[in-house]
Amino acid sequence: MNTAPATRLLEALDRVSTMLADAIDPVAGDGAIRSVTDVELRELTQQVEVVGRQVDALRVACAGEIDERSRVERGRERMSAEHGCANATELVTRLTQISARTASARIRLGRSCHPSLTLTGDELPARFPAVQKALTAGLLGLDAAAEITGGLAQTADRADPALLVAAEEELVQAATGTAPDGAPASSADDIRIQVKVWSLVLDPDGVRPDYEQAMRKRSLTVGRERDNLVPLRGHVLPDVAAQFLRLAHAHNSPRVDDRTDPGPVFRDDTDSDDSLIPHDERTRGQKLHDVLATVLGVAGRTAETPSIGGAPPTLLVTIPADDLDRHDGVGFVDGTDVAVPAFVARQIACAGGIQKLRISADGRLVALGTPDRTFNAHQRRAITARDGECIIPGCHVPAEWCELHHVIDHAKGGPTHVDNGVTLCWWHHRTLETSGWHIRMVAGVPEVRAPSYIDAQMLWRRVPPSPLLRRQSRRRRGRAPT
To answer: Is 22 exposed, middle or buried, given 0-12, 13-18 or 19+ CB atoms closer than 10 A?
Structure first.
């Protein structure tokens, strides 16, 4: 066996390791990398990736060869057994101190990109030679290589061999930027999408069985409450997830694509300082949670939603009347033992109404009142047309998604009237009592006052009319007198 190439490689790696250590220490070790120019940082990032890919190619080659020498057919002579390991993954993990997951990924890629031997010792070509060539040359990253080999392997046994070769070559060209059209290299995420497209070409009948399998695996589990949070776990179908994300994007977008009017901002006739609009500090996960809460609220209000006992499926919270207006009051969500603060009960009551029950000291039901009236469909349409969206400045959640808030609480004598109702998104409605925002109505028009940390003057500012009302106003002003 000629070991000269391996010896030269080991010597070269040793020299490169020493040179890199000498070069890296004064730059990265002392934080000097912060002083490089943007051009130098860009070139450094690209060159480091080139070197990293070359090292990754060797990592995959070594892992693949260890896997080849650790095949079960070798019996006691397999390499993993000789080193006291159960399999190749364990041996690679011990030699490199990487995770078993990373070791397995390298081994899978090694099986796809490197030649193997038959039981008689004959060499078989690599399953994906184009990937092997680009990987060895340092042109292809591990992520893209894994996407190509993993995706094509799923249809390889059913695909036309010529088409499979064409798919591999085109995907490698796209990932390395060597396509005839001169297109720049695609990222691993883009390659994943291209692999899915090629999979449809290679096996057009494979989509239906895969989707049927996904249908069987779909699930959603609602866990037990802990620390005032309830975990949701499960797997949703891609189209269901896409629909939810579309709703999320529409809900969280600062501007709807077809909305050309600037919409409500925090200003009045004499003050147009848009800098007073507060910054939304919610995380992406918190925003998605609030979208789900909004969607559930909208679904509960729609006429198409099935009723429960002849009534809409309204969330119920039980709270003593004395606790409802207390800062430290506590209510309980119906059907659970989950306690919620009184302000949560007030928000739900504001949007869904209150039904009073009188219970005697011994637990007997004394009287059951009728539910207090909530805004009806005609009032909702009127308030929605007036406000257009959530009235908190800078929040552009459409009014159709919002809850209706009694500016003066109904329990305190506030009427269920359009002059006492405004649109608030779920998030601003839930946090209205704790965020420092205040709302009042003046001659049927809502005004808002920001907390002091946003507006030091804490001025009351009129909410501008909705785009619909502004268009109508312009139309009336522009109409010729008769």
So the answer is: exposed
pLDDT confidence tier of residue 398, bands split at 50, 70 and 90? confident
Which letter, b or e, does each residue of 55-73 get, where b requires 16 or more Cβ atoms within 10 Å of its Cβ? Answer: ebbebbbebbebbbbbbee
Chain mean pLDDT for the chain: 79
Q: Where are the domains positioned within the chain? A: 24-205, 314-372, 377-478
- In the chain the first and final C-alpha atoms are separated, in Å, by 105
Cα–Cα distance between 389 and 264 in angstroms, integer?
Answer: 8
Q: What is the pLDDT of residues 62-92, one digit of tens each?
A: 999 999 899 888 888 899 999 999 999 999 9
- Is the separation of the CB atoms in 103 and 140 below 8 Å? no
Q: Is the pTM of this model over 0.90?
A: no
Q: What is the pLDDT of residue 259?
A: 38
Q: What does the radius of gyration of the chain's CA atoms come to, in whole angstroms? A: 33
Cα 71 to Cα 75: distance, rounded to the nearest angstrom: 8
Entry field: residues in the chain: 482
CA dihedral 406, 408, 410, 416 (to 10 degrees): -60
DSSP letters spanning 124-187:
EPPSSHHHHHHHHTT-S-HHHHHHHHHHHHTTTTTS-HHHHHHHHHHHHHHHHT--TT-PPPPP
CB-CB contact of 439 with 448 (8 Å): yes
